[in-house]
Design brief:
This protein has 391 residues and is mostly helical. It is built from twelve helices and two strands; from the N terminus they run ααααααααββαααα.
């Protein structure tokens, strides 16, 4: 099985074609400037939009302190990673223009490992956000009570550490040890080994995909169950109230024969108990923007406000959808190609492969858009920044 390269792609998404007897050295070094310029506009525009959108998001978080909440620390981390993804794509744009990788092989090996690590970190931050929302859904009180800036920074550092620990040996160290010739197009060593190629796409996409889907489905099921339970309780309370009115009306004449001062019904005791708890709750210090209630021990506790929860859930939904939609087509192509290249190479046009390869990074552009859609304060801050107005 020949594993050779003929695609001009960003180094993070190099995709090798099986071209029979043709090798990468047979590819012309300098392509037609007309062809390159025509194919340069969209990659350059796409890369510029990713960098600009994430720079604006980070600037808004820096300008407006109210945006620097616990939940938004995850968004800030994702914005930083998406910005680095956009910056790494600039070498792909230059590669497209010149027709070959512009840097030497030492930079190719080092930047290749860093590029894979940044991309993988970005995907696993989505998993971290889902895991945090999962705990907020199933254990809201403890989740809220343990939230802190230090915890957010620690949790957000985990994808960086894990990705660098895995990808630098897998890409950079392996290529230096083998003294691998990356060629003109900065081809990765693992693409010459089908099993290593499967590991690559599995860690980049399929593993985070499985974790995200499981966590999000559990969150969705819990939300549906909670909403359904509330509706059932409301219906039950309404029926009980109606039954009480009917029974009271039917027994109205007989009830007059008894002295109300000498009878204390269980309902009266329950009403009095609820009234006392309500009075105690009303006397608690105000917790602006957060739900407050008494726990079983009689202590005041609070959790995320309903508005904060809804905003976090909407943001998560947009992030998950953009992640899956952006990565799914190219990941399927890569997996099929790793198993049997002839299923992809003869029948799939190069332009289609290039399109899906660049589409992989659409989530880095869609993420900052989703933040603005789901967070009114972020929209207002961006509007004020762009119109040079104060708060």
């Amino acid at each position: 099985m020949a594993w050779t390269s003929s695609f001009t792609l960003p180094p993070e998404i190099e995709f090798e074609n099986n071209t029979g007897n043709e090798t990468q050295n047979d590819v012309p070094v300098v392509l037609s400037k007309v062809v390159n310029i025509n194919g340069l506009f969209w990659p350059m525009l796409f890369t510029t939009l990713i960098i600009a959108a994430n720079c604006l998001s980070l600037a808004a978080f820096g300008v407006e302190k109210r945006l620097r909440t616990y939940n938004n620390y995850f968004i800030i981390n994702l914005s930083i990673l998406d910005l680095l993804v956009g910056l790494s794509l600039t070498t792909g744009v230059v590669h497209t223009y010149f027709g070959y990788y512009p840097l030497n092989q030492v930079f190719c090996k080092i930047l290749g490992g860093l590029g894979q690590a940044v991309t993988s970190s970005s995907n696993f931050v989505v998993v971290i956000i889902c895991a945090d929302r999962h705990r907020a859904t199933y254990d809201p009180i403890n989740h809220y009570m343990t939230r802190s800036k230090r915890k957010a920074l620690f949790v957000n550092s985990l994808p960086w550490i894990a990705a660098l620990a895995f990808w630098m040996p897998f890409v950079t160290v392996w290529e230096f040890i083998d003294d691998f010739d990356n060629g003109r197009h900065c081809v990765r060593r693992f693409t010459h080994n089908p099993w290593a190629y499967v590991v690559n796409i599995t860690v980049l996409f399929y593993l985070p995909l499985v974790l995200v889907v499981v966590l999000y489905l559990r969150i969705f099921r819990k939300i549906q169950k909670t909403v359904g339970g509330k509706n059932v309780r409301k219906t039950s309370q309404g029926n009980d109230h109606a039954s009480t009115i009917m029974n009271t009306s039917a027994m109205g004449g007989n009830m007059r024969e008894f002295s109300t001062s000498s009878i204390t019904s269980p309902n009266d005791i329950h009403v009095e108990s609820v009234k006392k708890k309500r009075d105690v709750s009303m006397s608690l210090p105000k917790m602006r923007g957060h739900s407050k209630f008494l726990n079983d021990s009689g202590h005041a506790v609070k959790s995320e406000s309903a508005a904060e929860t809804r905003k976090a859930q909407r943001t998560l939904l947009f992030i998950v959808l953009s992640f899956v939609i952006s990565w799914m087509p190219n990941s399927i192509i890569r997996l099929i190609y790793a198993i049997e290249p002839v299923l992809i190479v003869p029948g799939l046009p190069r332009s289609v492969t290039l399109f899906f390869s660049w589409m992989t990074f659409c989530n880095s552009l869609l993420n900052p858009i989703s933040y603005a859609i789901t967070q009114p304060l972020l929209r207002a801050t961006l509007r004020n920044m762009m119109t040079c107005r104060g708060r």
